[in-house]
Amino acid sequence: MRVCARICVVLALVFAPAARADVKALEKAARKEGELTWYVAHYTSEGAEELADGFGRLYGVKVNVVRMAAQVAYQRLLQDLKSNQPICDVFSSTDIGHYVRLKTKALFERYVPESSARILPAFRNFDPDGYYHATSAGLVALTYNSAKVKPEEAPRKWQDLLDIKWKDKVSTGHPAFSGYIGTWVLAMSNLYGWEYFDRLEKNRPQIGRSINDTVKALTAGERVVAAGALGPTLFSAARGSPLAVSYPSDGAVLVIAPSAIMKDARHPNAARLFMEYLDSLEAAKISAKHFSIPLRPEVPAAPGAKPISEIKTIQPTVAEIDKGMPEVIEHWRDTFGN
Predict the structure, then answer these.
(1) DSSP-assigned states of every residue in 21-37
(2) Three-point CA angle 295, 231, 148, nearest 5°
């Protein structure tokens, strides 16, 4: 009987529902902590700071924003953990594989925000066990300099980037830094095999680090077409930059980006409240302003952006990203020499 009782206790702990909290009590506890640190790759620096400011205005809790490319954020987090210096409270990467590996090592707190039940159904229960949750989504699409490329001349599908007419005119990021680019590389490899990148290399693309570097390259006229992030491109275009988007007929690449609370976070209540906020109506409005896909059904896409329901999308599976991302990074370096 004692053995059975012990087994029941263990099973209860293993299969216990993810922690939830009374939001009002959580607000009070978070204000006492006063701050949290957010490692984030989801947005531009400007977008991340605006989200952090919105949280501060709502709750009086400061968010220390550490905005980095996904792979840089992950390496910094691992270094923090190795040094036994838990700095990050909430981790927001664009490489889903990071979450699979960190969850396996029991490095996340199990917590389900009340607000996550109100996001679009397609983004709910991203991790059925409740350790990480979708808090941002965006697209990799064909982008171009509208002052140098006419709409009728812009690429219409991903294979158009392989046309010799775009030699020395293509911009992209690097999968060793950008989770968005890594996901795009996996998607292209799934569609067309690695031959796609062998051919792209012949067009001598300009390779930055972050996918957001394509916005700078196109705006400056250094390159005229790109595999670029929809949100930062349209946000810059809305501010007067000569940029435009072509939604590829073979599918824009959908990137769902989760967030998670680190186990043993220094500011656990502030972190939980911030997770509630990231899937809130207020955060969705700010995300839409920066042309990310709003996760809340009440918030429409920003003017100039198509609703996600009208866009053909493709997306590698979580298993493909977890297994394939390290492989494509090495293959990329072999092909492009960096």
Answers:
(1) --HHHHHHHHHHH-EEE
(2) 155
Domain that holds residue 316: 138-254+311-336
Alpha carbon distance 199, 188 (integer Å): 12
Tell me, rounded to whole angstroms, the distance of Cα 27 from its chain centroid.
Answer: 26
Same domain (yes/no): 241, 331:
yes
**Structure-token pair, residue 83:** 């040094």
User: Distance between CA 154 and CA 248 in Å, rounded?
Assistant: 10
**Could you read off the pLDDT of 144-198 as tens digits, one per residue?**
999 999 999 999 999 999 999 999 999 999 999 999 999 999 999 999 999 999 9
Does the pTM surpass 0.90? The reply is no
Please check whether residue 269 lies inside any domain of the structure: yes
Q: Which amino acid is at 193?
A: G
Residue-wise pLDDT for 52-67, tens only, equals 999 999 999 999 999 9
Instruction: Indicate the SS3 state at residue 336.
Output: helix
